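Re: How this chain folds, sequence and tokenised backbone to follow
Notation: Tokens come from a learned vocabulary of local backbone shapes, not from coordinates.
Start of record: The labelled sequence and token lines come straight after this line.
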Amino acid sequence: MKQLTFRTLTATLVLAASFSAWAQTCQTKDEIPEPTRNAIETAAQQAFDQSASGNVQGLQASAVPSLQSNFAGITGAVNDNKDAFAGAKPQLRSLYFLDTGANPGPDGTFYCGVFGANGMNPNTAEFDLAGIAVGKYAVTIQDFIGNKGPYTLSIIFQDLGGWKIAGYQIRPGSAAGHDGLWYLLQARDYKSKGQTHNAWFYYLNSYDLLQPATYMNTKMLSKITDETNSIQPKDIPVGGKPVTFTAGGKTYNITEMSFFRNDKNFDLTMKYSVPSTADFNGTQADARNLANAMIAQYPELKDAFNNVWVHAVDPNGGDVVGLVKLK
């Protein structure tokens, strides 16, 4: 649903057959024996240094065998984020030690920390690593601030007689000069004003900025999910189901609405279906008409977004974009 301006990668973990029983365990940083913890921290620091220096060959040599032969995604992630790493020093936020036991569950769910009667506590975490192979793993989360603001590097390591990279994600911690907590507070403010469209997309963006890795859940993220689901607008396509929007006597079949972000702008994007895009100028004008009609119906969008991008897409993949600037 979301359209992002950065590249992340989760390396595919070695798959194992499903088992009927499971005994997966997780230890947090303070629970891990010191020799093991030191070895994992050393591996995480080395991986960060190699990433910051663009040493893709070193990262590849430090990966599990199945990942070494399929390293293009990590190479792209490192190269795309050279500016983010420039001048940055990492700070280890979290470290977890995961043990699948002899019979891991097929869903690969690990619960880390103390869970109370009401579920997750502030310092607990859940990892969902479906299909994870039998073995011992570590997850490290490193925060860093370079030339492009705050970012997070999350790495999955597997113990293969040494800690080898089995998963890798680089994620931004801010958009258009604001962090995830700022977007969360703005979402709640929009919600209180009844501006559900603004609130919906700001909630989604806050979740994405605050989630250090796509396979991880925390108490805060669960709360954001609950708040987001409580205000889902009915005229936003979700789950691949298009919605119709009528304006100026014409009905548009909107297939996607999402946000587009970069260092300077936070924009709204839409896609809708058209029979053909052969008439470029006419299609572009039609796309702008849809954008302006949406803004007229929801003028609060002017407060939340910098631009509105509307993509007219035909069955052959033709894509004509109409842009309306809001600021």
Notes: The two ends are 24 Å apart (CA to CA).
